[in-house]
Amino acid sequence: MAEIIQEKGGQILLHHKVESFTEKNDEAIIDTNQNTIKTSFYINCAGLHSDRIAKLANIQTDVKIVSFRGEYYQLKPEKRYLVKNLIYPVPNPNFPFLGVHFTRMIDGTVDVGPNAVLSFKREGYLKTDFSFRDAKDVLFFKGFWKLASRYAKEGIEEMARSFSKRQFVKNVQKLMPDIEEDDLIPGPSGVRAQALKEDGTLVDDFYIVHGRRSIHVLNAPSPAATASLEIGKEIVRRLEECRLAM
Ligand SMILES: Cc1cc2nc3c(=O)[nH]c(=O)nc-3n(C[C@H](O)[C@H](O)[C@H](O)COP(=O)(O)OP(=O)(O)OC[C@H]3O[C@@H](n4cnc5c(N)ncnc54)[C@H](O)[C@@H]3O)c2cc1C
Question: Which of 93, 193, 204, 242 has the smallest number of CB atoms closer than 10 Å to its CB?
Answer without folding.
Answer: 93
